[in-house]
Design brief:
- It is a single chain.
- The protein is α+β, with helices and mostly antiparallel strands.
- Helices cover about 35% and strands about 20% of the residues.
- It folds into 2 domains: about 210 residues, Zn peptidases (Aminopeptidase, 3-Layer(aba) Sandwich); about 100 residues, Alpha-Beta Plaits, CATH 3.30.70.
- The radius of gyration is 24 Å and the shape is elongated.
């Protein structure tokens, strides 16, 4: 019973969004073919659901939009008989960014009593995106050159996956298979900023599950992703000495100058052959054109293939932080 449900869940994960031909996903049994056809018949409804969710801005720092979208996601699960737990957002703890997260939505539907040995599934997805209200990228549109391709903030990462999740559950409910397992669904609103608040709850629920699916996008060829690269985020801040750029330039110690030198060294740590990348994504600093900048900082994204590389990466970061080329400056690292 458990393996049949696993196969059905995998099938629905692919079919629900991509609606691929049966031959592209392997041989399906009669029940799975029926589920696939039922989902194909609802493709228009899926698109309109995706359009609504994508049209609701859920940038990681848009508290109002996250609150609104959390209700959109929770309501259909409630109709399927899931018990809802809405955990209010909490402070992210990011330096210089006091904004709190959006709500964490946890929905549970235990297997009915009397169903022995029912497997427990954990289905996970995030509804925040990297596109804030200030972004011009706000609405879903269909690619005029490819009618099967939707474009919009979160279409792939990952509101499209959330549509898959919802319609898969609805199809399993209609087929009667939803009652053959226990289900927990988690929607978090802080994934794009590191899941700093939601991670502990997700890990706790994962320890109670037999099977887990994360509804991020598949590979371009449709292959399932079974693991992701490690990721780290860091804030590097440099402090210097402010001075007038004309009358007292020599007395100043430029934080921007020191940070620029450190950025070059950070980027040089990238090693594609070993799967290690450093990306300095944003830089800010200074106050006015004619003042030697006293402060500057950068946000750094780090990716790696092997968890054993984490120690090496941290050591490399610390060496750059501790070594100052511009005398009179110092650096601090958060992350």
């Amino acid at each position: 019973m458990g393996m049949r449900l696993v196969r059905a869940a995998v099938l629905l994960t692919f079919v629900g969004f991509w609606l691929a031909p049966v031959s592209a996903r392997g041989t399906l049994d009669a029940d799975e073919v029926q589920l696939k056809r039922a989902l194909e018949a609802r493709s228009g409804e899926m698109l309109e659901t995706l359009r609504l969710w994508v049209g609701t801005n859920t940038g990681s720092f848009n508290q109002v939009g996250l609150e609104r979208c959390s209700k959109m996601l929770a309501e259909p699960l409630s109709r399927l008989g899931f018990a809802l737990e809405i955990v209010p957002g909490k402070a992210l703890g990011l330096p210089g960014r006091p904004t709190q997260t959006g709500p964490l939505v946890i929905a549970r539907r235990p297997a009915p009593s009397g169903v022995e040995g029912a497997p427990r599934f954990l289905l996970v997805g995030h509804y925040d995106t990297v596109f804030e209200l200030s972004s011009p990228f706000q609405r879903l549109r269909i690619d005029p050159n490819d009618p099967g391709r939707a474009i919009g903030p979160g279409v792939a990462d990952m509101k499209g996956g959330l549509v898959v999740l919802l319609f898969a559950l609805q199809a399993l409910a209609e087929s009667g298979d939803l009652d053959r397992a226990g289900w927990t669904v988690i929607f978090n609103a802080d994934e794009e900023v590191g899941s700093l608040v939601s991670r502990a709850r997700i890990e706790a629920e994962a320890r109670r599950a037999d099977y887990g699916f994360v509804f991020e996008a598949v590979r371009p060829d449709g292959a399932m992703v079974r693991s992701r690269r490690g990721v780290g985020q860091f804030r590097l801040e440099v402090s210097g000495v402010a001075a007038h750029a004309g009358q007292a330039h020599a007395k100043g110690r430029s934080a921007i100058h020191e940070l620029a030198l450190k950025v070059v060294r950070l980027e040089a740590l990238t090693d594609y052959s070993r799967g290690i990348t450093f990306n300095v994504g944003t830089i800010e600093g200074g106050t006015k054109r004619n003042i030697v900048p006293e402060r500057a900082y950068a946000w750094v994204d780090v990716r790696y293939d092997d968890s054993a590389q984490a120690k090496e990466i941290l050591e490399g970061l610390q060496l750059i932080v501790q070594d100052s080329a511009v005398k009179g400056t110092r650096a601090d690292l958060w992350g």
